[in-house]
Amino acid sequence: MKTPTSRSPKKSRPRTVAPAPLEGSETIRNLLETRFPAFAGRGMREVHRLMRQSLEENAAVFATLSGAMTPAGLGASSIVPLIESGAISCLTTTGANLYHDVHRLLGHVIHELNPSGSDLRLREERTIRIYDLGFDEETLLDTDRYFLELIRRPEFQKSMTTAEFHFELGRHVAALEDKLGRPYPTLLGTCFRHGVPIFVGAVQDGSIFLNVVREQRLDPQFRLRLDVGRDVYQMGALQHWCREQKHSTAVWIFGGGVPKNYTLQGEPLLEQILGVPARGFDIDLQICPDVVDNGALSSCTAGEGHTWGKTSAECVELTSVYLRTDVTVTLPFLVSAVLSDKKLRRKPLRLFDAMARAEAELDRAVAKAEKKAQRKKKS
Q1: Which position among 104, 220, 236, 323 has the lowest Cβ density within 10 Å, counted as fewest Cβ atoms?
Q2: pLDDT tens for residues 60-93?
Q3: Distances in Å between the alpha carbon of 184 and those of 75, 76, 143, 203, 228?
Q4: 15: how many CB neighbours lie within 10 A of its CB?
Q5: Mean of all residue pLDDT scores within the chain
Q6: For 21-28, what is the mean pLDDT?
Q7: At residue 356, does pLDDT exceed 70?
Q8: Which residues pair with 102 in a beta bridge?
Q9: Secondary structure in 3-state letters for the chain
Q10: Looking at residue 4, what is its pLDDT?
Q11: Averaged over 231-246, what is the pLDDT?
């Protein structure tokens, strides 16, 4: 008889598929739990289940947000409430999401437009298009002036990681929100208030950093430099720290791209490169429109990630789901369902405040691993 192991999933009676007729009075949470029985609908139900499980287990949640979701309003409508409820502990996103998120705070308008219209005409009108969203080119120029003024300040004239850089930006954005009466909540301001680190794995591929490029070339006194090596190390340190603090770890992936891999690679960094034991993420939920058979990182499932050491075996078997659809279709429903349960709200883990301790703890673990490796070589 095979000896049971922790990797063996518990046997359970299959769930009966027989949803009751809709009455029109159901809550979003009730719909997700009882009226999504199969196929992509079941995948959405599983995403909701794993979001709930992450919070019920008080897991450290590392969320990723790709593309340009903030112009569509997903930052303010969905991600900000998750941060304020204590759900998200660390955020990895694109520079675009942070840059475009400030437009409305600065008084600019993003509006709907016809994606099948004339782009030549839009260019003549100086209207910028993001598929079916549009805004005036002056919006970009004004936002550039705002960030340019910030990065020229003394507190930015040093070597920084992206988490440190965006925390300082968040300090100023939060102050502007307060001054204006918080007319529109931003990711930068909200993450600053709740101690949530913001990593951007391709920071040079975003308009905020284009202004850094300008200053580096034109101002000999400009000293801001990004330490990308320490940036990656900080991500690994936070994941190691969370487990040292007895937290399980969950990754909530909204879209694919660089934010997804930048977060997941912390695990192989620890185990394969630094020699520090790491079991991989305990919960992995993904919402991405890509097919899974094209070899792209965006569509890499938890199972495929397990072969790289990014997710645990238990995660692959019991606590992972890949929902192939658009984040903008699903996220507001999921967030509404999660926030409807007040028991799932918690105090933020404030991982940014723990960053220095996390780095020091990983330094000790790396030194210990190095000594062990040296002893092994000598024996």
Answers
A1: 220
A2: 999 999 999 999 999 999 999 999 999 999 999 9
A3: 10, 7, 15, 24, 31
A4: 8
A5: 95
A6: 97
A7: yes
A8: none
A9: CCCCCCCCCCCCCCCCCCCCCCCCCCCHHHHHHHCCCCHHHHHHHHHHHHHHHHHHCCCEEEEEECCCCCCCCHHHHHHHHHHHCCCCCEEEECHHHHHHCCCCCCCCCCEECCCCCCHHHHHHCCEEEECCEEEEHHHHHHHHHHHHHHHCCHHHCCEECHHHHHHHHHHHHHHHHHHCCCCCCCHHHHHHHHCCCEECCCCCCCHHHHHHHHHHHHCCCCCCEECHHHHHHHHHHHHHHHHHCCCCEEEEEECCHHHHHHHHCHHHHHHHHCCCCCCCECEEEEECCCCCCCCCCCCCCHHHHHCCCCECHHHHHHCEEEECCCHHHHHHHHHHHHHCCHHHCCCCCCCCCCHHHHHHHHHHHHHHHHHHHHHHHHC
A10: 38
A11: 98
93 DSSP β-pair partners = 65
Tell me what pLDDT residue 1 has: 33
Of all residues in the chain, what percent carry a pLDDT higher than 70?
A: 97
Kindly state the tokens that stand for 341.
Answer: 């349960």
CATH superfamily of 60-378: Deoxyhypusine synthase (3.40.910.10)
pLDDT class of 379 with cuts at 50, 70, 90: confident
Distance CA(295)–CA(344), nearest Å, equals 36
Q: CA-to-CA distance for 287 and 78, rounded, in angstroms?
A: 14
Q: Sorting pLDDT into bands at 50, 70 and 90, what band is 11? A: low
Work out the angle between the directed axes of helices 207-218 and 137-151 (0-180°, nearest 10): 50
Tokens 């695990």 identify what position? 267
User: Side by side, which strands form the sheet with 198-199?
Assistant: 198-199, 90-93, 60-65, 249-254, 283-287, 320-323
Q: Give me 338's structure tokens.
A: 């999660």
How far apart are the C-alpha atoms of 133 and 110, rounded to whole Å? 7
Reading the block at residue 245, the tokens are 């603090």
Question: What mean pLDDT is predicted for residues 161-166?
Answer: 98
- Two tokens, residue 304: 């495929």
